[in-house]
Design brief:
By secondary structure, this protein is α/β, with parallel strands linked by helices. It contains 10 helices and 6 strands. The strands form 2 sheets. The protein has a 4-stranded parallel β-sheet with strand order 1-6-5-2. A two-stranded antiparallel ribbon has the order 3-4. The protein is globular. The mean pLDDT is about 90. The structure holds zinc ion.
Length: about 230
């Protein structure tokens, strides 16, 4: 990349630290240094059939393809980056993670039939409070490397559910059933949708949103996330 004099001067007066190892004087356009970037724990799920993420949804909803780019290790760099995106207003971090995911998806033959991207919606109240939906920022990063339409307003979230880890799957499903509403069914009809989230854990919220999308005739569903955590 061409480093201009202006950029060099800006970096000198506004030192910019790597979010992974705190190394200083990385470019202001980067969020982590080159060393941290090559050390990110990749899952290689994007190009693997029947991977761990796909197995999460087996017997729950029909998924074409699913994957997550990185493992989410406690106290690891990915956790740090996702926290920065979610709680510290760092749009650049979300765009960086989205671009990395977008690069992997764009060259994967498994995801070549996707028509449009939908970021998992936040409840409007929560989005207002945070100022943005982190899944939307990731989707925008993806779009920079893989130019697909983002259907941001086609699905809305009616209920802000808390994580219900202690409930069994049936109770959870009862609670999740009506939390999403398709506000623009025509925009989804006969399309293969890629649903995006930051982290996949139980997959319960993605399952609920995915079921709402699949209720529209002719839709197919794939899922991708930045990270996967056990
Ligand atoms: Zn670093």
């Amino acid at each position: 990349m061409l480093v201009t004099v202006a950029t060099a001067i800006r970096d000198l007066f506004f030192p910019h630290y790597c979010l992974g190892c705190a190394a200083d004087f990385i470019s202001t356009t980067e969020v982590i240094c080159a060393h941290c970037k090559i050390s990110l724990p990749e899952t290689h799920f994007i190009n693997s059939n029947h991977n761990t993420i796909e197995k999460i949804f087996w017997g729950r909803i029909p998924i074409e393809q699913a994957g997550a780019l990185y493992y989410f290790n406690k106290h690891g760099v990915i956790q740090q980056l996702l926290r920065t995106l979610k709680y510290k207003n760092s749009i650049n971090t979300g765009l960086f993670l989205g671009r990395e995911l977008g690069k992997a998806l764009a060259v994967s033959s498994r995801f070549k039939n996707i028509d449009a991207i939908i970021p998992l919606p936040l409840h409007p109240k929560k989005e207002y409070k945070r100022g943005y939906n982190q899944a939307m920022i990731i989707a925008q990063g993806i779009q920079e490397k893989w130019p697909l339409p983002i259907l941001e307003k086609s699905v809305i979230r009616l209920v802000d559910t808390k994580t219900q880890t202690r409930e069994n799957r049936v109770n959870r499903w009862e609670n999740m059933k009506n939390i999403f509403h398709i506000s623009n069914p025509h925009s989804l009809q006969n399309k293969h949708i890629l649903l995006i989230d930051d982290v996949i854990t139980t997959g319960a919220t993605l399952e609920a949103c995915g079921a709402a999308i699949l209720s529209i005739p002719g839709t197919k569903l794939s899922i991708a996330a930045v990270a996967y955590t056990l």
